[in-house]
Structures are given as structure tokens and as C-alpha cells.
Amino acid sequence: MKLKHRVVDAVKAQFGHPTGLGGRAAGLIMANRSSNRRRNSWVVSLLAVQPDDRVLEIGFGPGLAILELSRIATEGRVCGVDHSELMVRQAMRRNADGCRRGVVDLRVGSVDELPAFDAPFDKVLAVNAAMFWGEPDARLEKLRRMLRPGGLIAVAHQPRGPGANDETSAAEGREIAAALVRVGFSEVRVETLNLKPAVVCALGVNGPRT
Fold this sequence. Notes:
- There is one protein chain.
- The chain has about 210 residues and is of the alpha/beta class.
- It has one domain: Rossmann fold, CATH 3.40.50.150.
- Helix content is about 45%, strand content about 25%.
- It contains 8 helices and 7 strands.
- It has helices at about 1-15, 20-30, 35-45, 65-70, 85-95, 95-100, 135-145, 165-180, and strands spanning about 55-60, 75-80, 105-110, 120-125, 145-155, 185-195, 200-205.
- The longest helix has 17 residues, at about 165-180.
- About 40% of the residues are buried.
């Protein structure tokens, strides 16, 4: 059992911070698994992105959502931050056209050490990234400062692993929504995508600072 647990932990670590051969395999899985594609497309649809929007994704992995966003925000800017250099390289290859056109800007970084951007964003998203954050309230507050007033954030999560079910998803959705409220987001709501287990996405509007 100890060996099994070590293997499971090693696999989880590669999805959290892909590196080396294991990271390449994790990237391929994330890029090609149908549930991952559906989850990313769904979250993008919830943001109602406009052609001139500036959008930031935290933890973009192989760049599936980035690709969809760049096809919508053709007159805007689609930026991404991921702490895995391997994922940045994979995502840049997948988004080579957007990078060439200057629509896509992908950088190595993390929610703890966000790079500087030249203007606030209209939309921010994180898909299955918040589970790896310590002190999520502090991280969400940082992201709130990246948004323009009235900007929209979407934080999505689909629990994985033994015992994960729709109830687990619902509890995670409530927890993320409560965190958004605590740091000052308004009009907070939770949407659900019917996968197994369900995907939840908490959305909130960047209200005025107090």
C-alpha cells in the first residue's frame, strides 16, 4: 500500500507541476482527455468574452482554454501564467499562431509571484488550479487587483481521485464562492457542468474597493 500511495502522490505532483518525462505525459493527458476539453470550453463560455477583452488565465497547462480565448478575443489580449516551464512550452506550441499575432502572451510564473502586465484585465480564470493554492483568499485578492472594476473572475474545479463525487464538487463550489465573497467580489454564483464528477465554477464581479 505504501508503494501505491507513493505512485499516486507522484502522479498528482506531475499534474500540479509537470516536469520531465512524467510531465510530458501529464500534459498529453490534459490536452487530449475529452473531459478536460469540455471543462475548459465550458468555463470559457461562462465568461462571455468579447473580441476586445483582455483575459488572464492562471495555471493554463497545455493551453486549451488559451486557444479558445484567442479565437474570440481577436482584437484584445489573452495572457497566461503557469509555474511549469514545460507547460509553457507546450502551450506556446499549441498557440503558436496567437503568439505570432501578438494576441497571446504566455509567461512562467505563479499566483504567488504574478508578473507585471501593462493594463488590468476584463476577465480572469483558473481551471483546476486553485486546488494547489495555499491561502486561497490571499491569492484571490491578488487576482482581484488584476481585474478592472466590473471585471469577471471564474474559478473552476473538478475533484479527482478516490471518493470524488458530485457532493464533493458541490462542497468545493460553495467553498470557492465563499472565498470570493470574503475578498470583495459581488454577484457571486456557482455554475455546474454535468460530468462525472460534476465540474463547478464560481464566478464573481470585481466590485468597488472599500
